[in-house]
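Open question from group meeting: does this chain pack into something compact, or does most of it stay loose? Before anyone orders reagents, we agreed to write out a predicted structure and look at it together. Recording both the input and the output here so the notebook holds the full record.
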Amino acid sequence: MALNKSMHPRNRYKDKPPDFVYLASKYPEFQKHVQTTLTGRVTLNFKDPEAVRALTCTLLKEDFGLTIEIPLERLIPTVPLRLNYIHWVEDLIGGQGNPRRGIDIGTGASCIYPLLGATMNGWFFLATEVDDICFNYAKKNVEQNHLAELIKVVKVPQKTLLMDALKDESIVYDFCMCNPPFFANQLEAKGVNSRNSRRPPPSSVNTGGVTEIMAEGGELEFVKRIIHDSLQLKKRLRWYSCMLGKKCSLAPLKDELRKQGVLKVTHTEFCQGRTMRWALAWSFYDDVPVPSPPCKKRKLEKARKPLTFTVLKPTLAELQTQAPSIGCTDPSPTESVSAWLEKILTDLKVLHKRVPCGEAELSLFLTAVENTWIHVRQKRREQGRHLRELPRAQPTSTCSTDASAPSVPDTDAPTPAPEEPTAEGSNAKERNERREPEKGADVKMESPTEPKQAAAGSPQNPETGQHFLFKCLVNVKQEENDVVVEMHWVEGQNKDLMNQLCTCLKNSLFRQAAKPT
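Structure tokens returned:
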């Protein structure tokens, strides 16, 4: 779960994701859908509806004592995401205690919100449903969990939201919840019109009946209808809320509430795995406290999070064995990895120096003044193809390489890098001096031992006047039998460049360890 740290603080899965190994050992039905990779990692195919259903039913049974049934042709909810919504409603209404009354608009076959709310907090629910199959399953799930005294499932006509459901009641409800149909048509449901072309396809399957995933005008018009109902019901509910599948729906809905004079408005984000959802809530009560919307803290934390990779014990052992070949006399894990990193950085002409750090770890401060690591893999392939095509090349046209050195950008590769590559030795120097500058380029001839100046507009060190691409701090520390390498951004042009360098360092270490000794 990539976004676990951004889940609601009270979500039980925030710091403790489901243990698939344990669940598989306890629940045979779940075990049938568990897969083990070649590396021994236990996974689940989230594109398989039966696997997703097995996980949901297993988590509800294991963590909440709930037994439910869900047909494959109807929406299969994910438990951690639904918990986020429940916890946010707790924040809206001021806590988990005291009997509260809520409405679940379109409860679905699982009836998951009422089941969780009733089980966790003892809340009373009015659960509405328009679909016959969903209604029958929801009612059965409530009854078999002995929660009929807390949850009333009612069948309502199509397009019924709040007004028709409450016309014969005078009860004041504390809140309403709703997962509106996200899509306006089949094309949107398949991601044709609604998904940015640059985004990867969804990692999980999209299940659900027509009434669950599609509505006229999509989620935007659906929620506007709830807003219209709330303008008539007003204080019959203390809080109105809806979950949204698209961030772009949030702003126009807040504008709609503003136009209608609704002042008590808030919103939040729900995170689960790689799934993001947004929620909107509003109230007509003057005395309700309004939870603050999420600040940019999550984005800042994401921006500050270091790039990391782990050198596992087998790889580490190989690097330690080969470390003396580069002059490393200290066989400790962190020292061996640091020595190889320094070797690779030197070959890449990335400026670096050791800096003081805490015990049991080593730190390097990096200043990259030129992108020498770009297209390393492509150039290596081009070099290999070039050699295969010329098996009888003259000996003078080849150059020897040090088998113990890590792979670095090859200046003789037939595919030129976007920036002028570095060179080693007098022949490389002569080739650089003979190279003509590209049209419109601002080229300054320099000694191979001096780092090239970056393009105008690059960050500049105020003390030395030296231009650079970026600066970062690399920490090397041991964790049990492995070594973890962290790259912390300091300043510069583009963090993608640090990401590229991180990948280059990792691949070079792993390739070095794979070389025969």
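Observations to bring back to the group:
The radius of gyration is 30 Å.
Residues 495-514 form the longest helix (20 residues).
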